[in-house]
Design brief:
alpha/beta, 5 strands, nuclease
Amino acid sequence: MRLPVLTFDIETQTDLKSGAHLFGLDLPDESLDHALTKLRRQESGSEFQRLPLHEIVCISGMWIDEQGMKLFSFSREQHSEADILKKFLSIFDKRHPTLVSWNGSQFDLPVILYRAMYHGLSAPSLFDQGEIDTQKRYNNYQNRYHNRHVDLMDAMSMFNGRNFQKLDDIAHLLGFPGKRGDGGYHVPEYVKHGEWSKLTRYCEGDVLNTWLIYLRWCLLKGQLLAVDHQHLIQSTIQYLQTQPQHAEFLAVWRATSQQTDFTHFDFPTPTD
C-alpha cells in the first residue's frame, strides 16, 4: 500500500440557482425543485440530476499516513461550497496521496471538476494530466488504469458497467457495517434543517466503509500481507473508539463482523 492514502466521499444537493439559470426558470425554491426534477425525468428517465447541478454540501475524508489516521469533514455548516472545495483541493498542493473512492471516477471527481470551474478555482495538483508535471502523464488522478486514484467500484467490476455493485451491498457482504439503520438519502433534509452532525456522520460512514473495502482489496492484490491487513483493521477500530460520533458504526460493525468467517475475530470476545 502506497502512503499516504486519502479515502473520500462527497454529498450533494440540487443547485437550484444554477438550474433556474440553465433552464430560464423564475419560480420559488420549492416549485423550482419540483420543476427541475420533472425536467430531468423527462430528459433522462431518472431524477438524478446532471453532474454540474450537484451542489457540494459536504466532503469527508480519511487520511492515513505513517503517523496514523484521521477523519475529517468540510461541510456547509461553516463553509461555502467554494471554501469546501478550496480546503479539499489544497490537500493535493501539499501531498500527493493515493486517492480512494467508490464511484469517484463517474461521480465525485467530475462533480468536483464542474463545481471548481463554476467557482473559478484552479486545481492542477488534482487535474493535471502531464501538461504541467510531465510525470503525471503516466500516473494521474483521471486515468482509470493508473494507480493514483483507485475507484473501487470501477476496479472491482473490472471496468465493466454490468458488474457495478452498491457500496452498501459490498460492505455488508464483506462483514462491514454498510449504511447504519435507514439507508435512505436524506442529505437535502439534513441541510434544510441544519442537522450538520447527521450529514457529516452519514458522509464519514461511507468513507469508512470504502476504506475497509480498500484494505480487503489491497489484501486481495498482495499489496498488504495478512498480518498488516489485520493491524490496520485493529488500528481503525481503536481510532473509532476515540470518535464518539461513530459509536453506532462500531456497534453495527461488531455485529456484522460475526456473519463471515474472515471477520469473525475482528472484535475479540471479552473473557471473564
